[in-house]
Amino acid sequence: MPSAAVDEIIDVLRAAGERITTAKRALVSELLGSTAHVTAEELIERVQKVHPDVNKSTIYRILHSLEAHGIVEHVHLGHSAAVYHLSGKTHHHLVCESCGRVQEVPEATLAAIARKLRHDFGFSANLRHFAISGHCETCG
To answer: Where in the chain do CATH 1.10.10.10 domains reside?
Structure first.
């Protein structure tokens, strides 16, 4: 993982008054190196391969901190553990109940629903926190 990308996130944390640790740097590096959404358990396993002394609870605390600073988001893709991904281009998730395929869709796709909920019910929905389940085109 490019050191510059890790350093950029570490600089954000440092500016927010966070203490920078080896565990924090390792977790950020793993998140940046992930090509898909990952669970906390997967991140723990990856970090502990390189730093076996990093405690599981430490990873959860770091994830919580990264989320509080807007660096990562977690989403529930069905009945399994929450998955994490770096914040950035906001998107929603569609999950096929048959094959498990996860498809990302742009935020604008569900914007009308969010507006309708706000208008009709005065409710500001966080539609990124969960996935919409159904069946993909292949599974029909």
So the answer is: 3-86
